[in-house]
Every structure is written in structure tokens, then in C-alpha cells.
Amino acid sequence: MPISHLAALAQPQALQLLKGIRRGIEKESLRVTPDGALAQTPHGTSLGSALTHDCITTDFSEALLEFITPPVATPEEALETLDRIHRYTYSQIGDERLWVNSMPCRIGADADIPVARYGSSHSGTMKTIYRLGLGLRYGRAMQTIAGIHYNFSAPDALWKWLHEHEGSSEDLEAFKTRRYFDLIRNFRRHYWLLITLFGAAPAVCASFVEGREHSLEPFNGDGRTLHAPHATSLRMGDLGYNSDAQQSLIVCYNDLPSYLSTLCAAISRPYGPYHELGTRDSAGNYQQLSTGLLQIENEFYSPIRPKNPARMGETALAALDNRGVEYIEVRCLDLNPFAPVGIDAQQIRFLDSFLLHCLLSKSPKADDADYRAVQENQNRTVYRGRDPELRLIHQNGGGGEVKLTDWAACLLDEMAPIADLLDRAWGGDSYRRAVEAQRAKVAGTALTPAAQILEEMRSRGQSFFQWASDKAEQHRRYFVERPLDAGTQRHFAQLAGESLQRQDQVEEADRGTFEDFLGHYYAQYVFCQR
């Protein structure tokens, strides 16, 4: 890490720039019935339009809610917003619960998993067909896995300071984009640490893997629950958001043009097995948007994404090409079932420290070997991250291997002065304590969420389903026993109503056929091939 950066950032004027960091949370949760089955009810109109609501929408399924907070200044603001969204939602869903684990409840056959619907507009139809395509390609069960996405951005004032401090001759947008990609490469090298510390999916219901190859073992001799003894996050492994088809796709994170061209090629070129399926079924109905390896860029299962908010009708890649990187989205986080909203302030402060470390550390360009090492370290950490003897590939050390615990301790040492800077900016010692709390997890992995889940299941003699059902009911009571005040309740009801009106406006504004709309949308990917 450039020592000059840390020393310079410690100056009072620069220190205050760190307070401009913004973070937002996207939290997914399945709606389930009181007996723990996947809810078959549609997304309620009292929650608003899943197409146009700013903070309550759906992901793959009608039953997979997604709550979104705006970018805010402090962890507490994000958590308070998320808490209010939960309380409003619980006031509208009757006796249903929100499943608090990343790995799903008893979900049954694929046909029993309802795909999300977004109305009759061209954009809403596209969103539904995209999800039908995901179900066709990977199965709907995989799409019921939930997680936390963490959005992080540095303020322009900090970027201007870094731009000047580094003596860059680039314009500010190009500088920001290049340095965000520096952050992304370092994140990819080190996100195994997040899986180790915060992984909370060491077990699954046996029904989830029925008919699939796996290496899991029965838990406590009970065939209803399968687990791996040292697992951290099965969600991040071959049973979760992984795709055999995408294993051949090596995405370059060395700069924006390389990133765009790689993904554009995967979207634009037909992929044999998907081409054979065709875009329409035997009845002539759409079953996927395209026959490319990726239908759209969101289909690429990455633990982190560069982002710029897309405008109406604009692809995510076109937004990046037009305006550069504005923030990054961390996508490798499990729901924490011990926290009612799925994440807590200590974890957020650790994430801020970790991401600043990724930004301020040297970030050499990556090659294919680096890319494969990242994938291998992820796979090892998913299944064996709590094994004190586990070794990972250390590409910066020449491709040799190092014990996970030693590497983790080294990273935490490097993060400590960054946490200290954030504490000096905000006052107190919350960031330092957030980093120090992780040292205990590294030293004894019994303190990790994954280990705590297995220990509670073991001590209570419960299956994963029983344990998770109890937690869902516990959190339901936490929210319903704290109803919103009348003014806040009316505010959320108004947001829901306004979103329904916006959906009507979108549908009324449509012109031309859906095929025309889709053609114009895919024409945007031509920019990557110039």
C-alpha cells in the first residue's frame, strides 16, 4: 500500500473526505408460508409495482422479495431504512414470513417456483422472459438462493484529492474508472476472506440437491440436512451461483474496454447448447431472451460488479461505456440469519475498511492464471474455509500456496490503519473494533456465522429446515411487534401507489412491437465491438 496515501489521508482536510463515502444495501428474502413452504401468492399490490418501486421489488421469483436502500452516509442510516422496509412489508403479507437464510426453504419442483411478473410493458415483459431463461438454463431452484448486495462509492471530492495526489493527467471520469478497476482486481484476489468471515450457508435441505451430484454429508446422521464440515457459503459454490457454461468465460478486469468487450462477446455470440434450445418454445412463446452465453450482462455470476445507474432502456454495459464507473456492487455476501435485516453495522464497517484497502493497495494487472487462482481459492474457501490447515494460491507470491489463516491475519494487519483513519474521521473506535472482531474468527473459526449455525443445530437436535424456520418466526415477531408510526406507514403506502401509477405510465408509453423493443435493446451491444 502506498504509505504516502495513508500519511496524506491522515491530514485533517483529507480525513474529512472519507465521510463522503456512500453505501447502499440490496437484500433478498423469500416469502414463505407459516409451515415453511415457498409462498405461491403474487407480489401484493399493497407493496407496489415490482417494476418501478424504488425500494421494494422482486428478483427471480414472485416470492423472492428484494429491498433496496438509497446510498447513505452511515451504516446506521442504511440499517434503519432496511428496518422500516421490513416492518412495512410485514404489515402487508399476512401470516407469511421472510426466510432469513441464503439457502432456500422447501421449494419442491421447478414448476412450483413462480417466476416474477412485471406487467405488460415491453421492459416488464423483458424482465420476465430473462428470468424464464435463467430457469431454463440453470433450473429455477438455484434462482431461489438469496443474498446481500453491498453498493459502495467514494465521493468526487475524494477522487479529486487522489487524482491530484497521484499526479494523474487523466480526466476525472477516466481516473475514477481506472482506480475502481484497481479496487475490483484486489477485491477479487481477497474476497475469499469475506466468504470465510461472513459465510452463513454451511448446510442445505436435502431436497435442494435432490437429483444433483454433490459432495455433501448428512448432518448428525440426519438425511434431511446435508452439509460440509468446514463449509462457509455453499451459496458461492457449485451448488449455488455457479455455471458450468460460464466456466469457459474469462472476464478481463484490467480496464473498462477489456471488461466491456469480453461481456459483449458473451452476449452477442450464440452459444451452442442455448442456440439449440431456441428463444421460443414449441408453442411459440418466449423461453429466453437470446441464445448467447449470457442473455444480458446481469447473468454473469460475479462476486463484484462495476456499476453506473442505467437510464430507461439503456443496458448496464452501455451506461458504463457512456459515463464510466460510479460505484461497485459486492455480491458475495450471505444473509446473516442472526441479524434481523440480514446484516449489521459491524459487518458494514468491516466492508468499508476492506474496500478502502482494495482501493489504496497496489493492484497489478491480472492474467489468466490470476483469474483461475481466484476461482480456485473461492472453491476451496466455500467447502473448507473453516479448516485451519486450508491453503490458498497466492498469485502475488509467485503462485505458491499459503495458509488461509496466515494470509487473513496479514490482510487484517494491513486494514488496521485504514480502520483507524475512518475512526479519526468519524470519531470513536467502531471501525477498529469491526476489524479486530474478525481476528477472533480467524484464530478460532467457531465464531463464524457458519460455525454458529451448525453448533446451534447440533445442540438443539434440529435439521437445517427446523432451525431456519425458528429463526424466520423469531425475526417475524421482531418486526411485527414494532409497527411503524402512522405517518411512516402512510409514506410507504403512498410510495406503493405512486409506483403502480408509474407502471401504468410505462405501459401506456410503449410504442411498436416487443420484437422492435428487443432489437433496439440488443443493438446497444454493438458499441463493444467497434
Topology:
Blueprint: H1 3-9, H2 12-15, E1 22-32, E2 56-58, E3 64-68, H3 75-90, E4 97-98, H4 122-138, E5 148-153, H5 156-165, H6 172-190, H7 192-198, E6 203-205, E7 217-219, E8 222-227, H8 256-268, H9 272-277, E9 304-307, H10 316-323, E10 327-333, H11 345-360, H12 368-384, E11 391-394, E12 400-403, H13 404-426, H14 430-443, H15 449-460, H16 464-480, H17 486-509, H18 514-523
Antiparallel strand pairs: 1-3, 1-4, 1-5, 2-3, 5-10, 6-8, 7-8, 9-10, 11-12
Overview of this protein structure:
- This protein has 530 residues and is of the alpha+beta class.
- Helix content is 45%, strand content 11%.
- The protein contains 18 helices and 12 strands.
- It has helices at residues 3-9, 12-15, 75-90, 122-138, 156-165, 172-190, 192-198, 256-268, 272-277, 316-323, 345-360, 368-384, 404-426, 430-443, 449-460, 464-480, 486-509, 514-523, and strands spanning 22-32, 56-58, 64-68, 97-98, 148-153, 203-205, 217-219, 222-227, 304-307, 327-333, 391-394, 400-403.
- Strands 1, 2, 3, 4, 5, 9 and 10 form a 7-stranded antiparallel β-sheet that branches. Strands 6-8-7 form a 3-stranded antiparallel β-sheet, with no helix packed on it.
- Strand 11 (391-394) and strand 12 form a beta hairpin.
- The longest helix has 24 residues, at 486-509.
- The chain is globular and about 65 Å long.
- 45% of the residues are buried.
- The model has no long low-confidence stretch (mean pLDDT 94).
